[in-house]
């Protein structure tokens, strides 16, 4: 029987799904993080997961983004061959119109992160279009749609290899995961695609992340095929690495591992890894001709009532008066609460500043003895001074770090995840410090920001340089003035603990 699907029904359903996933985590993810939080023994990792859970509940209540990076939209759409469209737009144009409406919704503005001309002008498209769309035509009379919003930090950690047929997938994954660092904001899921061709393996890995978290059910019933055997083995062995939440060291690095495979050429074994971050965002709907398919809000009772208490030994810092002598006493892994004024700046602002310094030009802001926060916030709505403003991946700024420290007098940096060795060496050489804010807690972080104004490079949009005034913004000392990195020491300590406990 033929089904007629109206153009506006698809547009409205896509827009609704994207708004929905911007502030509601899937409840299976919340349950899995809470279970990991309950059994975690690493205090740093436990604190990070507490902030993720609190942020998630706040976002659900406030209908504001879980993460400042509201993602590039990926859509898997399966169209029944008995569907007839009442539409003047193409399928892709309908989906992109839904994306446009979602990201420009005045009640919950979502950050536009998509740039056209990616190796040229890199111009922001202003509405986060176009989406990345995968199509499938099948027997039937419905339109089945999976919508996901994928953050750039986790997407940047994707890995691909064309293995030899006799090579071990497990060995390759265990080699790659530590190299991914913490920029993908663990704990999350790993999607693994095996087989087909290079592009098919990547598509399988991405699609696998749409599946629910069910590793404990699989553990209970046992594997029935090779893909499930890999899931079980990798779930155990990846967690044994001790990377932990936010890379601080701990018992839980992955909440689940998903594996999809496809027949491949006899000479090949293509394998892809795509991680999902702590801002796991996806939704599913089906159009059957009866109108738009809108998401059903979950109950707030699905969220655990978590509180995060700052310990008595926390270090409170006034950014307006802190000195280089003061920061020498800060210890790796220590919790610091920041108050006062900080500047912001990420990729585009750093490149612009470094280019200006190379030309001998004066910078529009004085960075002497200041702290800079790597962030691209969401635009504010209503009474907000700034929208969700969590950290971006700090390693992208590594290549600028030595120049910035040497030529501007910058004292400290705040970002997400680890620093590479080139940045660590520069931090040590100039007696600076790097602090880590929790990725996946953007709405929570924004509540510490009491004032915000653009002070330079306004034309860069969300990548402009702001001055934030903060009160008790929680961060962790990730690299101290001596160049000791908690992202190197923490996982090693917890890997050794996990292995020792298993041998006991």
Keywords:
2 domains; 24% strand; fumarase; 4-stranded mixed sheet
Structure description:
The protein has 15 helices and 19 strands. It has 504 residues and is of the alpha/beta class. It folds into two domains: 3-289, no CATH class; 315-490, Fe-S hydro-lyase, tartrate dehydratase beta-type, catalytic domain (fumarase, Alpha-Beta Barrel), CATH 3.20.130.10. The protein has a five-stranded mixed barrel with strand order 14-15-16-17-19. It has a four-stranded mixed β-sheet with strand order 6-2-7-12. Strand 18 and strand 19 (465-479) form a beta hairpin. The chain is globular. The termini are far apart.
N-to-C span: 64 Å
Low-confidence stretches: none
Largest β-sheet summary: 5 strands, mixed, barrel
Shape: globular
| Percentage beta strand | 15-25%
Oligomer class: single chain
Structural class estimated from helices and strands: alpha/beta
Fraction of residues in helix: 25-40%
Q: Outline of this structure?
A:
By secondary structure, this protein is α/β, with parallel strands linked by helices.
SSE blueprint and pairings:
Layout: E1 3-6, H1 7-23, H2 27-39, H3 43-62, E2 72-80, E3 83-86, H4 91-103, E4 115-116, E5 123-124, E6 132-138, E7 143-150, H5 152-155, E8 159-163, H6 169-179, E9 188-195, H7 198-208, H8 215-221, H9 226-239, E10 254-262, E11 269-276, E12 282-287, E13 315-318, H10 324-327, E14 335-344, H11 347-358, E15 371-373, H12 398-408, E16 412-415, H13 421-429, E17 433-436, H14 442-446, E18 449-456, E19 465-479, H15 486-503
Parallel strand pairs: 1-3, 2-6, 9-10, 13-14, 14-15, 15-16, 16-17
Antiparallel strand pairs: 2-7, 4-5, 7-12, 8-11, 9-11, 14-19, 17-19, 18-19
């Amino acid at each position: 029987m033929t089904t007629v699907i109206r153009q506006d029904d698809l547009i409205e359903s896509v827009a609704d799904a994207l708004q929905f996933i911007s502030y509601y985590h899937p409840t299976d993810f919340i349950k899995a993080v809470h279970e990991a939080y309950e059994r975690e023994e690493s205090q740093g990792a436990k604190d990070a997961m507490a902030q993720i859970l609190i942020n998630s509940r706040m976002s659900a209540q406030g209908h504001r983004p879980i993460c400042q990076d509201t993602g590039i939209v990926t859509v898997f759409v399966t169209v029944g061959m008995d569907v007839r469209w009442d539409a003047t737009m193409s399928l892709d144009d309908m989906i992109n119109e839904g994306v446009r409406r979602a990201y420009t919704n005045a009640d919950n503005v979502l950050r536009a992160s998509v740039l056209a001309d990616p190796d040229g002008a890199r111009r922001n498209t202003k509405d986060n279009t176009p989406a990345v769309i995968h199509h499938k035509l099948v027997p039937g009379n419905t339109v089945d749609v999976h919508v996901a919003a994928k953050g750039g930090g986790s997407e940047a950690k994707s890995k691909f290899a064309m293995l030899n047929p006799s090579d071990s997938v497990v060995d390759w994954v265990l080699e790659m995961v530590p190299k991914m660092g913490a920029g993908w904001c663990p704990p999350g899921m790993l999607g693994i695609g095996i087989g087909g061709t290079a592009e098919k393996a990547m598509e399988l890995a991405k699609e696998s992340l749409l599946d629910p978290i069910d590793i404990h059910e699989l553990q209970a019933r046992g594997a029935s095929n090779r893909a499930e055997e890999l899931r079980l083995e990798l779930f155990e062995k990846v967690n044994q690495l001790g990377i932990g939440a936010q890379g601080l060291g701990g018992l839980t690095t992955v909440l689940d591992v998903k594996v999809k495979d496809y027949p491949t050429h006899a000479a090949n074994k293509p394998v892809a890894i795509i991680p999902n971050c702590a801002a796991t965002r996806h939704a599913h709907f089906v159009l059957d001709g009866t109108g738009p398919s809108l998401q059903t809000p979950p109950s707030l009772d699905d969220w655990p009532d978590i509180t995060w208490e700052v310990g008595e030994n926390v270090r409170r810092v006034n950014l307006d008066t802190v000195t280089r002598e003061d920061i020498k006493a800060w210890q790796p892994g220590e919790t610091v609460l920041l108050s006062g004024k900080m500047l912001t700046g990420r990729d585009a602002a750093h490149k612009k500043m470094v280019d200006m310094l190379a030309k001998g030009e004066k910078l529009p802001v004085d960075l002497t003895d200041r702290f800079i926060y790597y962030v691209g916030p969401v635009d504010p709505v209503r009474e907000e001074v700034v929208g969700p403003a969590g950290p971006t991946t700090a390693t992208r700024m590594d290549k600028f770090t030595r120049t910035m420290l040497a030529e501007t007098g910058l004292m400290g940096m705040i970002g997400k995840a680890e620093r590479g060795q080139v940045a660590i060496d520069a931090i040590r050489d100039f007696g600076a410090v790097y602090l880590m804010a929790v990725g996946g807690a953007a709405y929570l972080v924004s509540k510490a920001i009491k004032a915000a104004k653009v002070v330079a490079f306004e034309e860069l949009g969300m990548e402009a340089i702001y001055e934030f005034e903060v009160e008790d913004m929680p961060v962790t000392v990730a690299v101290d003035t001596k160049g000791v990195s908690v992202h190197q020491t923490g996982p090693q300590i917890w890997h050794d603990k996990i292995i020792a406990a298993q041998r006991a």
